[in-house]
Amino acid sequence: MIALNVDLIVARGTPAALAAKKATSTIPVVMAVGEPLLVVDSLSRPGGNITGLSGVQPELETKRMELLKELAPTTSGIAALLNMGNPVTAPQLKALEAATKAKGWRFRLFDVRSREDIERAFDGLDKASDAVVVGLEGVTQANRKTIAELAAKHRLPAIYGGREFVEAGGLIFYGPSFTDIYGRFATYADKIFKGAKPADLPVEQPTKLELVINGGAARALGLEIPPSLRLLADEVIE
Prior knowledge:
Elements: E1 9-11, H1 14-23, E2 29-32, E3 50-53, H2 61-71, E4 77-82, H3 89-103, E5 106-111, H4 115-123, E6 131-134, H5 138-142, H6 144-153, E7 158-160, H7 163-167, E8 172-176, H8 178-193, E9 209-214, H9 215-220, H10 227-232, E10 235-237
Parallel strand pairs: 1-2, 2-3, 4-5, 4-6, 6-7, 7-8, 9-10
Antiparallel strand pairs: 8-9
Helix pairs in contact: 4-6
C-alpha cells in the first residue's frame, strides 16, 4: 500500500494498526476498532499519523459478568477463550480476572489461536467452569459457529464480544455497536481529506452499546430470559 502512495490507510484492529504504524510515519492511518492506547500517545492527542475509533472497553467485563449471572444464575466459574497472541487481549484478560475475583468465581484461561485450540479448550473443560466468555478477534470470529455449537453441545452459557456470535447461535452479546463505529469512520476520512492531521483528531470511544440475546439458545440450555433483561435488550433473536 505504501508503494502505491495511497492517501489513507484503514487498519481494522490492533495488529493491523501496529503494522501500519511500523510501516509508515507519514501516510494517515485511521484505526477502525482496536485498543488505541497500544498504538497512539493518548486518546485526546494521538500524535503521529494515526487516529481512529476504539472498539475495546475492558471495563465492560464486569457488566458482562453481571448479565451472564442474571441469565444463568448458577454461574460460579468462568472459562475464557482468548487469543493471547493478539496484543488487544491482555487488557481484557486483566479485566476478566478482576471481575471474576470480585465475585468470588473460579477463572480459567484457554489461549486459543486456531480451530484446533478451540476444540481442545472445550474438551478440556471440567465442572469447575459452568460458563464461557469468548473474546472478540480474528480467530474467534472466524470460528464463531463452531464455538456456538460447542457451547451448546457442552450445555454451557456463553457471553460474547460481538453480535455475530449470537447471530451464529451463541447465547448473549454485550458490547459496542460495531455498525455504529464503522459508520462514524467516514467522518475521520472526510476530515483528513480536507486537511486535518491525525495527530490533532482525538480517538473516539464507543458511544453506543448493544445487548443481544438468542432466545433459541437460551431455551436449548433450559434458561429463562428474565423480564428485566428482555427490557434491556436491543434485540432478542427468536
